[in-house]
Design brief:
By secondary structure, the chain is mainly alpha-helical. It has two domains: 58 residues, no CATH class; 229 residues, MetI-like (MetI-like fold, Orthogonal Bundle). It contains 15 helices and no strands. Helix 5 packs across helix 8, helix 5 runs parallel beside helix 15 and helix 14 crosses helix 15.
Length: 337
């Protein structure tokens, strides 16, 4: 098993190389890149100033200076290996839009996404796993039917629609939460510690509900269905026939096998911790990682695009390895070769 995980770790840099090379190639081949955008903005600015030479094409020297500024003066592979060399030295380059190092730009947005991502992960697993167990035990009862209606209704409503409804009811009409949203209030840094906690909860309750609503149905039903399948299995019925109590049969025998499919997907949640949702962030005026990724694509801020891709792909690969480790710890019968 040790050799298996060692091979998986060795495949991480190879996979990252392939993924980043593919996306880097796409950013160089698609039309409307930062060079064309800069030319269009310069000409538009000249027209607004009434400059007679605004529509005149730039000289070859000026074009070369722009290409060097945006890193388009090298062949594709040479430019990629230059970016890769900077990465190995710990640099992701500078953002075209923010004119700051990409690490700095991502660090500005990371605390917001970590806050929502970690809370979503903790609350989802803390609620959905016990709820799935309860629904399996109480199958076809009022509790099971009502909870299924609620979680399916939440799953069917898109998060941005749900967020708009929450703002309309609880912020605009009832005024329980701030209408303008934001991660914290304007006077947040002048408050006491207790005031900061209250202010943070006040501003982030509604968006947190939007993050939670989409994942509840999948995880709850996954837990319920797997547990019901295992409760109906021969080994559980044999254990009960031999005098094992129902509670012990559920938690000692069936639960451990039922949690394996959940463990296989746990590692993938690492990317969700930092990715966020740009739709939710737009609705609630939260400047997080999801909105940064969306804007970087729209604005052709390719260094930020590559930085977010690298971090997300790295977390996904590490998450898959963590999932395999969890599966091996839960079920000792599993052997990875």
């Amino acid at each position: 098993m040790r050799a298996y995980f060692l091979r998986r770790l060795l495949l991480v840099p190879i996979t990252l190389f392939g993924v980043t090379l593919l996306v880097f190639t796409i950013t160089r081949l698609v039309p409307g890149g930062p060079l064309e955008r800069a030319l269009a903005e310069a000409q538009q600015a000249g027209l607004e100033r009434g400059d007679a030479a605004a529509g005149t094409p730039l000289s070859q020297e000026q074009m070369q200076q722009l290409a060097e500024l945006y890193g388009f003066d090298k062949p594709l592979l040479a430019a990629y290996f230059h970016w890769l060399g900077d990465l190995l030295r710990g640099s992701l380059g500078n953002s075209f839009i923010y004119n700051e190092p990409v690490w700095t730009v991502m660090a500005w947005k990371l605390p917001v996404s970590l806050y929502f991502g970690l809370l979503t992960l903790i609350i989802t697993y803390a609620v959905c796993i016990p709820l799935g167990i309860l629904k399996a035990i109480k199958h076809r009862t009022v509790l099971d039917n009502v909870s299924s209606i609620v979680i399916f209704a939440g799953y069917a409503i898109p998060s941005y629609v749900f967020g708009s409804i929450l703002i309309l009811i609880f912020a605009a009409q009832l005024e329980w939460f701030p209408l303008l949203g934001g991660f914290v209030g304007e006077d947040f840094y002048e408050m006491s510690l207790f005031g900061k906690v209250v202010n943070l909860i006040h501003h982030t309750t509604l968006p947190l509900l939007c993050y939670l609503i989409g994942s509840f149905a999948f995880l709850t039903l996954l837990m319920k269905n797997n547990l019901m399948d295992n409760l109906a299995a021969d080994y559980v019925r044999t254990a009960v026939a031999k005098g094992v109590g129902f509670r012990e049969a559920v938690f000692k025998h069936a639960f451990r096998n039922s949690i394996i499919p959940i463990a296989t997907t746990f590692g993938q949640n690492l990317t969700l911790i930092v990715s966020g949702s740009f739709l939710i962030e737009v609705i609630f005026d939260i400047d997080g990682f999801g909105l940064l990724g969306f804007r970087s694509v729209v604005d052709r801020d390719y260094p930020v695009v590559m930085g977010i891709l690298f971090v997300s792909a790295l977390l996904l690969l590490i998450g898959n390895i963590i999932s395999d480790i969890l599966v091996a710890l839960i079920d000792p019968r599993i052997r990875f070769n």
